[in-house]
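Bumping with the actual sequence this time:
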Amino acid sequence: MRTFFAIFLLLGACAGTARADQTFSPFPAPLIHYQNQEAALELLTGSPLSLWETLVHRAREQPMNVLVSALFLGAIVHTFLASRIGRVAERMAQRGDSPFLATICHYLGEVETIFGIWVIPVAVTMGIRFGWHNFTSYLQKVSYNEPMFVIVIMAMAATRPVIGCAERLLGFFAKIGRGTPAAWWFSILLVAPLLGSFLTEPAAITIAALLLAKKFYDHKPSQRLAYATIGLLFVNVSVGGALSHFAAPPILMVASLWHWDMVWVLRHFGPPVLVGITLSTVTYACLFRHELHSMAAAAHPTRPTSHDQRGAPFWVTAVHLLFIGWTVFNLHTPQVFWFSFLVFLAFMRATAAHQSPLRFREPLLVGFFLAGLVTHGGLQEWWIAPLLQDLSARTLFLGSALLSTFNDNAAVTYLTALVPKFMDNPALQYAVVSGALTGGGLTLIANAPNPAGQSLLQRYFRGGIAPLKLFFAAAIPTLIVGSCFLLL
């Protein structure tokens, strides 16, 4: 990875030097720049521009729009090829080929690194075309609060006291089914996603993934059930945070702009979310009832709890939960929650007897993934905003769900919030957000917490998680949840 950063810095410096004498030209241009030009064209022609004419005009006005979108498309295609590249890297390592090339292939096959890697050609092209200062100015406008927050909240949620607390809570529901793998499967997939409305979705998926690994995936389910489970997890987590105005990223991005509070969100999103998660989980439980039952019969006896697995004292767990609550409360202020995280690390060191080693690799990889994604996402508004602008509520719901499979669903709702048409239209607001929530489980890049689940569970899938298999595994719960948003 240090090699990639070195190349990135070298090429960036060369690009900045080569164009240092040229006039600074800001890119990407603000939407109002295009809208003013298009309004003038409509006055001249006497007719409104079609969507195609709008996109062609913006592409001609700034050809770099097409290039950065093509690079974004290349990153998406790369995610579908990641598992194959990973297998190539494994074969190269086994044959003893060049360690350097094998390492490069390994990183190219890691889903979490892909969007960050594809930022390199974006930086080079923007630096060559407009000067390095233009690219650094663009980075200063991009909000990286979400990637930083996800790193901190994932690390906190994966600690032994928090996981132990969640395990005891979900174990209460699992006891109804006598604590079998099927009972744990049902309670985790039904209850843990709803915790996301209070702990945030990244924390919920971290807890759910770690418990699923321990209570379900370690019993070696079939690959068909393994994919169905992670697809259901992604969909349930995507909508499970929609019971509050701060936990689900698509809602968080627009709640203040559209004046949504806790009561409004709970009243409008609560019924379809609760019904959708329940129906989806029950449907998959029925479809895989035979295998779940056979897993219960073949389950290994419970092993004695080791020293590292025992729960922490109540006061230690309480302090961990207070740190998580404080981090959620200050999620818009990275200076505060990063300082708090350093204090949290000191507390973990002081209570090392009740702690396990901090899991930091997965949070860092997920943060890197999201940072690359939001860097690309900010360059796509030139085509996303006009695409959503003139759609009806029903079509907007479908379009938002579809776009969320190719872009972070929080970015979709944020770009919609920039369109004046949505400011005073609650029906369109609900349609675009519910569509983004619905499509958040179909791909790894559709919802910010998904890479966390992928990072924690990918070892249970042969050759890594295949994007197409994940898509089809999440299709049924996506249809169920989408129907609930449309009908309830």
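The tokens above came from a reply further down the thread. The chain has two domains: 2-27+62-141, 146-487.
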